[in-house]
Amino acid sequence: MPSNDVRILAQAAVPTAAAGAIAAVVSGLVAGGKGAIGAVVGTVIVIAFMGIGLYVLQRTARSLPQLFQMMGLMLYAAQILLLFIFMAAFKNTTLFNPRAFAVTLVVATIAWIAAQTRAHMKAKILYVEPDSASSSSSSKGEKPEKSGHSS
């Protein structure tokens, strides 16, 4: 993963983990140990799903840039659907408090999306590679060829 991708991943995962830690403390106080376990499980699931999704999206952007927007929309829809499936699958569990789990899933997801949005807005991502655009014409000492219609 290039350094910019790792930076965006860290800038999204750290606030999400912090929100999950706060949720675990609050859930532990409100619902006991099972509430804290539910909050931790919810946070881990969100970080894993969203991190894998970010990785897949970045690979798609490099290999198939024309599919980037469609892939991003499909990916977020699939992640939200999978999170709802997890909430439904664990609603009657006795391993942890399902309400703390569900609330933490929602809070951590919102924290991830907000942090990732902020990271992308602050990132200085080049739209054009400056070396490839300038080296092709200046290294040969020629004028760039016109590619449009000549009439």
From TrEMBL:
<feature type="transmembrane region" description="Helical">
    <location>
        <begin position="96"/>
        <end position="115"/>
    </location>
</feature>
<keyword id="KW-1133">Transmembrane helix</keyword>
<feature type="transmembrane region" description="Helical">
    <location>
        <begin position="12"/>
        <end position="30"/>
    </location>
</feature>
<protein>
    <submittedName>
        <fullName>ATP synthase I</fullName>
    </submittedName>
</protein>
<feature type="compositionally biased region" description="Basic and acidic residues">
    <location>
        <begin position="140"/>
        <end position="151"/>
    </location>
</feature>
<keyword id="KW-0472">Membrane</keyword>
<keyword id="KW-0812">Transmembrane</keyword>
<feature type="transmembrane region" description="Helical">
    <location>
        <begin position="36"/>
        <end position="57"/>
    </location>
</feature>
<feature type="region of interest" description="Disordered">
    <location>
        <begin position="130"/>
        <end position="151"/>
    </location>
</feature>
<feature type="transmembrane region" description="Helical">
    <location>
        <begin position="69"/>
        <end position="90"/>
    </location>
</feature>
